[in-house]
Amino acid sequence: MVMCEPAPIPRRVEGQCGGPLQQLAPAMTDELLEQAALVRFRRKAAQIEARARQRGWDQALWEELLGALGYKHNTWPMRRVAELAPLKREEAFDARCRGALFGNRESSPGRNRGDEDGVG
What we know:
By secondary structure, the chain is mostly helical. It has a domain at 19-87. The protein has helices spanning 18-22, 26-55, 57-69, 75-84, 95-102. The radius of gyration is 20 Å and the shape is elongated.
């Protein structure tokens, strides 16, 4: 199992930035938040890259996608679902999946060509 996630933020530290940030000039706050976002982005990119080296890019992105769908409190359970139901390479670019995700009704699962009501 890959341990790429950062440690949780301790309760005693969580939320203590609000006061000091309000005392900064808006330009300084913007710069600080931009730098923090860049650090977070790079950390997440490194985590995904580490996972991709072990499992391949398709699977790593599948796990991240499902983890993101779990929002804040269900990230790990959703990532575990992705591990238990791995994305098969031939499914990664399946036209029916693309259709379902991006709204192409002709290639949506359960819809046959010429079937106007969408019932297979």
